[in-house]
Amino acid sequence: MTVLIHSYQRKVNDTHKNNAAAYAAHIDSSILQLRDTVGYIYSSDAVFQGLYLYQPAADKVSSINSMLNLLKLQVRSNRNLGGLFIYYDSDKKPLYYVNEEMSFQDKEILKKVGRAVQGVSNAFIDYVVKAENDTYYNAYMQKNSAAICGNISLSQGIPELSSDAETYGIIYEGVFYLISGLRPELSDMEYTLLKPGKNIVHGSVAYVQKLDSVNMSVVKIVPHNIWLYVSGVHIILFLLGLMLILFCIRLYRFTSNQLSIPLEDMTNALQNIQEGVWEVNFTASNRITEIENVRQTVRIMLKEIEQYKIRSYEEKLEKQKVQLQFLQLQLAPHFYTNCLKNAYYMLMMKEYENAEEFLLCLSAHLRYLLQTDATVVTVQTEKDFVQNYINMESILSSKPFICEMSVDDKALEVEIPILALQLFVENSIKYARGIEGRNLQIQIYVRYLSTDDGNNIDIIVSDNGPGYPEELLCVLNQKDVFSDSKTGIKMGVGIINLLSRLRLHYGEGISWYFENRNGAYSEIILPAMQGGEVS
Q1: What is d(CA 493, CA 239) in angstroms, rounded to the nearest whole number?
Q2: What is the spatial distance between Cα 17 and Cα 26, in angstroms, rounded to a whole number?
Q3: DSSP summary character for residue 410
Q4: What is the tally of structural domains in the chain?
Q5: Which of 10-24, 249-263, 324-338 has maximum average pLDDT?
Q6: Least enclosed by CB within 10 Å: which of 113, 435, 478, 489?
């Protein structure tokens, strides 16, 4: 009983500590995501910068609409965000988009608090707001006359309460904020004296967990009573133990004759299961219904485990498919609005032939990108798409450029991830076209390589532009480059995204190399695949 009680005490303490740690980890992760989102819009987004720069009225309306769409996208794609607020002119209503779970009263309070902070400083400010229905952590950044404020709900991620007496809260800048449950009779000063770990104060036990991202602590408080040390189960076990001692002699004979052999047989079967042998065959005779029920339960359990393994594998494949589609959609170009405007201007200038050719190219471009099931295409298909894209840009561009493509015949039917070529051509046109004194030249080479280790596709794209920034080359030439790799250079986002798709599709069987050779030089080597299999 002593061992059981000590074990129970450790289990209870570990449970409360783990609950506080899990809650703290969730809040920590949400704060980091919030800061990344706010910092990205603050430092990198051109639309946000346009709100505090002088713009004609029409352009400013366009910037406001674009910013609203950006806020909506960020909040919807990150379920941990409570909302994002943009303050630009002091006499204008703020732009905002909030999570649908946020109440109207809380939204109005957060708007007013953010407006009150505006103008205090151009630096980063974080603060906690106790609203009517929830408590929020806010990250605020201001630049000139525009500011962005994002928040998260501090009630998210709270583990399920096992009793009404449990309380969750946070300590921030010497103030205790009640998040869930009833507030214990402690002052703010007493809360600030709590140390990380287990604290006993005023008839309560407080489990404190500090956050890594911000000077904030999570507190879980439970009553300090006997049920923290002894449960009703222990009392029942004590009584049962006394009864078992009285009947132990009679039970000894029964267990020897009626249980030992069947249990030994069952033990051997379970050992076989531990060694990976899933075929179970119970050989010992048995007349006890309970043991037979256990045998049947084991057989059913093994069948359920086998079905679970199949379902788990199918779910894993589906998850990979969804992730591939999500990464593919991230690569969609963002120049369609300009395309439509240019087509409109062509029609206005009565350049009907150019407009007709351009709209046909744009139609083929969109049809290719909106393939919902296509994650891989043949090299021939991607080559035709790149040529169509070049035709579009040639119509739009007043400055000529040259794109040469050389593809081995054996490589034309090999499958590659969609947009694997177009991304580099688009980067070259976007970032290298404006070179003074010479026209842009792009070279594309696709080679079919046969080696002792198998067949591969070597893709090389180069141009005569200014090349990659050194900071970006350091990131791209790392062995492990994922879609969440940090880089402040816009042209690197699409390339990192592509490398993530390639790693997800091919695993470790790929390699890449980026450098500057009188311009940007990009090389990727992939296993040659046809019909979903390595050729």
Answers
A1: 67
A2: 14
A3: G
A4: 3
A5: 10-24
A6: 478
Tokens found for residue 367: 């049809």
CATH number of residue 361's parent domain: 3.30.565.10
81: exposed, middle or buried (Cβ count in 10 Å: 0-12, 13-18, 19+): buried
Chain-centroid distance of CA 126 in Å reads 23
At residue 86, what are phi and psi to the nearest 5 degrees?
-115, 120
Region of 350 (left: φ > 0; alpha: ψ -120 to 50; beta: rest) is left
Sheet of 415-417, strands arranged across: 376-378, 415-417, 529-530, 533-534
* pLDDT (tens digit per residue) in 112-131: 998 888 766 667 889 999 99
247 in the same domain as 338:
no
What pLDDT shows up at residue 192?
75
CA 6 vs. chain centroid, Å, equals 40
Residue 193 tokens read as 């004296």
| Number of CB atoms found within 10 A of residue 297's CB | 10
Task: At 482, list the tokens.
Answer: 């994922």
- Same domain, yes or no, for 167 and 248? no
Residue (of 115, 149, 152, 159) closest to 131 by Cα position? 152
User: Residue 405 in contact with residue 422, Cβ under 8 Å?
Assistant: no
The stretches of 45-200 forming alpha helices (DSSP H) are 46-50, 57-77, 104-117, 188-192
Contact 198, 10 (CB under 8 A): no
**Whole-model pTM over 0.70:** no
In the block, tokens 């000077």 appear at 215
Tell me the C-alpha distance between 363 and 354, whole Å: 14
Rg (CA), the chain: 32
CA neighbours closer than 13 Å in the CB half-sphere of residue 482: 5
Measure CA of the first residue to CA of the last residue in the chain; give whole Å: 66
Give the Cα separation of 449 and 457 in Å (integer). 6
Could you give the maximum distance between any two Cα atoms of the chain, in Å? 107
Mind spelling out the 3-state secondary structure of 179-240? Answer: EECCCCCCCHHHHHCCCCEEEEECCEEEEEEECCCCCEEEEEEEECCHHHCCCHHHHHHHHH
Helices (H), 287-441: 289-330, 336-348, 352-369, 379-396, 422-432
Q: Are residues 22 and 88 in the same domain?
A: yes
In a domain? residue 263 = no
Q: Which residues pair with 86 in a beta bridge?
A: 95, 148
Among 176, 206, 222, the domain-final residue is 222
Q: Is 156 left (phi over 0), alpha (psi -120 to 50) or beta?
A: beta
**What is the DSSP-derived secondary structure letter of residue 489?**
-
Listed as own residue / partner, the contacts of 275-284 with beta carbons closer than 8 Å and 24 or more positions apart are 278/302, 278/306
pLDDT on residue 453: 80
Measuring CA to CA, which residue among 117, 124, 120, 207 is closest to residue 166? 207
Claim to verify: residue 189 and residue 124 sit in the same structural domain: yes
| pLDDT given for residue 524 in this prediction | 93
- Domain ranges, residue 229: 225-258
Tokens at 224, concatenated: 């300090």
Same-domain pairing of 245 and 187: no
For residue 375, give the DSSP letter: S
In this structure, which amino acid lies at residue 347? L
